[in-house]
Design a protein that fits this description.
It is a single chain. The chain is mainly alpha-helical. It contains 10 helices and no strands. The chain is globular and about 50 Å long. It starts with a helix and ends in a 7-residue tail after the last helix. Keywords: Acyltransferase, Cell membrane, Lipid biosynthesis, Lipid metabolism, Membrane, Phospholipid biosynthesis, Phospholipid metabolism, Transferase, Transmembrane, Transmembrane helix. Pathway: Lipid metabolism; phospholipid metabolism. Catalyzes the transfer of an acyl group from acyl-phosphate (acyl-PO(4)) to glycerol-3-phosphate (G3P) to form lysophosphatidic acid (LPA). This enzyme utilizes acyl-phosphate as fatty acyl donor, but not acyl-CoA or acyl-ACP. One of its GO terms (biological process) is phospholipid biosynthetic process.
C-alpha cells in the first residue's frame, strides 16, 4: 500500500479517538453521548459532568481539549520529522484528523465539532493565525458566554487572518485545506447555529 494512504488512514483513525467520551466514562462514570448536546467535545464534557462534580468537570474538559488537539498535532509531527512526508500529504493528514474527530468510525460516524483537533492541525502550519484565533475565542467566550458562538467567531478570525498573513499558503499555494476544515466545523455546528438564531443556545458559565 502507498505510504501516503497509510499516513492518511492513521491520521483519520487517530483523529477519530473520542477522548471526551473516554475521559467521561473512565473518570466521571458518565456517558456524555447520552447527555447534554451528546457531543464528545470539551464543552459537553464540562456541561454534563459539572452537574455532579464541577471540579472534576473542569479538569476533564481541559484534558479533553489537550488530547483532542494532540490528535491533530502528533500525526503531522511524526509524518514530518520521522517519515519526512511532503507538505501536501501533511495538510491532507490534518484534514483527515478533523474528519475523523467529527465522523468517527468508532461512534457510527458521529463525533465532535472539530474545534480542538482543527486547532491542533493549524498550530502545525499557521501558528500565528492560530494565536489570533485563540485570543479572539477567549475574548468572545468571556464576553458572550456562549461556547459555540465564540468558536465560530474564532474560526472566522482564523480564516480571515490566514488570507491576510499568508495569502499564498507556503508550498501548497491554496487555502483549500483550511476552508475544508472550516466547512466541516460549521457543518457540525449547524444545530448550534439554529439555536443561536432562535435565541435558545445555552451558555457556559
Amino acid at each position: 500500500m502507498n505510504e501516503n494512504l497509510i499516513a492518511y488512514l492513521i491520521a483519520y483513525l487517530i483523529g477519530a479517538v473520542p477522548f471526551g467520551l473516554l475521559f467521561g466514562l473512565l473518570f466521571g462514570g458518565i456517558n456524555i453521548k447520552k447527555s447534554g448536546s451528546k457531543s464528545i467535545g470539551a464543552t459537553n464534557v464540562l456541561r454534563v459532568i459539572k452537574q455532579s462534580n464541577p471540579a472534576l468537570a473542569k479538569k476533564l474538559a481541559i484534558l479533553t481539549v489537550v488530547f483532542d488537539a494532540l490528535k491533530g498535532v502528533i500525526p503531522i509531527l511524526v509524518g514530518k520529522f520521522i517519515f519526512e512526508l511532503d507538505i501536501a500529504t501533511l495538510w491532507a493528514m490534518g484534514v483527515l484528523a478533523v474528519v475523523g474527530h467529527c465522523f468517527s468510525p468508532y461512534l457510527m460516524f458521529e463525533g465532535g465539532k472539530g474545534i480542538a483537533t482543527g486547532a491542533g492541525v493549524l498550530a502545525c502550519f499557521l501558528p500565528f493565525e492560530l494565536i489570533i484565533a485563540v485570543i479572539v475565542w477567549f475574548i468572545a467566550g468571556k464576553v458572550l458566554k456562549i461556547s459555540s458562538l465564540a468558536s465560530l467567531i474564532a474560526l472566522l478570525a482564523m480564516v480571515v487572518s490566514s488570507f491576510i498573513f499568508h495569502y499564498d499558503i507556503p508550498e501548497i499555494n491554496t487555502h483549500a485545506p483550511i476552508l475544508i476544515i472550516a466547512f466541516i466545523v460549521v457543518y457540525k455546528h449547524m444545530p448550534n447555529i439554529k439555536r443561536l438564531l432562535s435565541g435558545s443556545e445555552g451558555k457556559v458559565i
